[in-house]
């Protein structure tokens, strides 16, 4: 992270321009893969678009079934 010039993960958000394919990982199967379109930053496609923490989200995680199943399985998980 520091080698890329970032101090925090939040600073990294939206900066896909620092990502590059490692040449030592290229094979015949990966030669034709172009991730450029996927990794194009949103602000290059639409100027002024927000890319980070634009609105508060509530996923209601406190009422998810996972929490109930984990609580009910706690005794078995501890063994």
Element layout with pairings:
Layout: H1 9-12, H2 36-39, H3 42-45, H4 65-78
What does this structure look like?
The chain has four helices and no strands. The protein is an all-alpha fold and 79 residues long.
The helix-and-strand class reads mainly alpha
Assess the beta-strand content as a share of residues. under 5%
Averaged pLDDT: 85
Low-confidence stretches: none
Largest sheet: none
Percent helix, as a range, is 25-40%
Helical run tally: 4
Q: How many runs of DSSP E, i.e. beta strands?
A: 0
In short, what is this structure?
The protein is mainly alpha-helical.
Descriptors:
mainly alpha; 79 residues
């Amino acid at each position: 992270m520091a080698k890329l010039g970032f101090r925090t993960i939040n600073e990294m958000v939206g900066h896909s321009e620092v990502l590059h394919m490692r040449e030592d990982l290229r094979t015949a199967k990966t030669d034709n893969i172009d991730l450029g379109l996927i990794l194009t930053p949103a602000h290059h496609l639409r100027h002024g678009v927000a890319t980070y923490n634009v609105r508060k989200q509530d996923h209601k995680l406190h009422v998810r079934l996972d929490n109930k199943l984990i609580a009910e399985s706690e005794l078995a998980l501890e063994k």
